[in-house]
Write a structure and sequence with these properties.
Elements lengths: L1 H13 L3 H20 L1 E3 L5 E3 L2 H30 L7 H18 L6 H28 L3 H32 L2 H5 L1
Antiparallel strand pairs: 1-2
Length: 183
C-alpha cells in the first residue's frame, strides 16, 4: 500500500516540473489531433483509433495523478472543440480513471509487453466495459445485456491490437532514450 501511495505522491510532484507541464500539454494536443484524424467512427458507440497512445504515454511517463488530470482535461477540450452528443461528467470520469490505472500499472516500471497488455486488459474490464455499460444504462436506459456483448467483443479485439501498438511505440521511444531524459 505504501508503494501505491508513493506512486501518487511522486506523480503529483511531477506536476511541479515545468517540462512535465509542457509535455502534458503537448500530449493533450496530440491526443486531440489523433482522436480527430487518427480514428474511424464505426457505429454511434464504436470508435477505433490511436488517441489512446497519448493518454497511456502520459500516465506511463508521469504517473497516475498527471495521467488522470491529462485524461480529464483532454476529454473536456475534445468536447469543447467538437461536441458529440450531450456532455456528461460520467464520460469524463472514464477519461480520468483509465489513465490513473495506466499510471498505477506502468509508472516507473519496466515496459514489458505483458505489463502493457495487463494494463490494457484492466482498463478494458473496469472502464471500457464496466463503467461504460453503467453509464449507458444510467444515461440512456439501454439494456445492459444489449450493450455488454458488443462492448466485450470490441475490447477482445482492441486490447491485443492496442497493446502491440503501444509496446512498439514505447520500444521506439526507448531507443531514442526519451524515458531516461525525462527521468
Amino acid at each position: 500500500m505504501n508503494k501505491l501511495k508513493q506512486q501518487f505522491v511522486d506523480s503529483y510532484r511531477e506536476l511541479k516540473k515545468p517540462n512535465t507541464l509542457v509535455l502534458l500539454a503537448l500530449l493533450i494536443a496530440l491526443g486531440i489531433v489523433l482522436d480527430y484524424f487518427g480514428s474511424i467512427q464505426v457505429t454511434e458507440n464504436v470508435k477505433i483509433g490511436i488517441s489512446f497512445v497519448a493518454n497511456q504515454l502520459a500516465a506511463a511517463l508521469f504517473g497516475p495523478v498527471a495521467g488522470g488530470i491529462m485524461g480529464g482535461i483532454g476529454d473536456v477540450l475534445k468536447f469543447i472543440i467538437k461536441p458529440t452528443g450531450a456532455f456528461s461528467i460520467l464520460w469524463t470520469l472514464n477519461a480520468i480513471v483509465g489513465p490513473v490505472i495506466y499510471g498505477i500499472m506502468l509508472y516507473k516500471k519496466k515496459m514489458t509487453f505483458i505489463r502493457i497488455f495487463a494494463s490494457k486488459a484492466v482498463v478494458a474490464v473496469i472502464v471500457n466495459i464496466g463503467m461504460h455499460c453503467c453509464w449507458m444504462y444510467l444515461l440512456y436506459g439501454k439494456a445492459l445485456m444489449a450493450v455488454l456483448p458488443t462492448k466485450c467483443v470490441q475490447q477482445l479485439i482492441q486490447v491485443p491490437i492496442q497493446s502491440v501498438i503501444f509496446y512498439l511505440f514505447v520500444k521506439a521511444l526507448e531507443k531514442t532514450k526519451v524515458f531516461k531524459q525525462l527521468g
